[in-house]
Design goal:
By secondary structure, the protein is mainly α. It has four helices and no strands. Helix content is 50%, strand content 0%. Helix 1 packs antiparallel against helix 3.
């Protein structure tokens, strides 16, 4: 995905920010991975959020924004090793049954 440098090269973080922005602007976001295997976690994230929505546990833009902020505050972009990646962080905080992990 072009333009991910400011996000530490994290295409999942960039996608989630774009998704939040599109939702806030009431716009549809069309996502195409073009068979890039690095994008597979994005599809799982979309599925997880959709599953939460379907079970009456809406994942709001505000909730996703809070998760992004939590991750950014504890992430050192200069030290890649030993850090929890953004996708894993999000999955650790969203349950597939629609409940947030504590």
């Amino acid at each position: 995905m072009q333009g991910c440098g400011v996000f530490g090269g994290d295409i999942i973080l960039k996608t989630l920010i774009q998704w939040c922005a599109a939702t806030t602007a009431n716009k549809t976001l069309h996502y195409h991975s073009f068979s890039d295997t690095r994008c597979e976690p994005i599809l799982h994230l979309i599925s997880a959020v959709s599953k939460c929505q379907g079970q009456g546990q809406p994942v709001t833009v505000g909730h996703l924004y809070q998760l992004i902020n939590m991750w950014v505050k504890q992430h050192d972009f200069n030290a890649r090793k030993g850090k929890v990646g953004f996708a894993l962080f999000i999955f650790q905080h969203l349950e597939f049954n629609g409940e947030e992990k504590h």
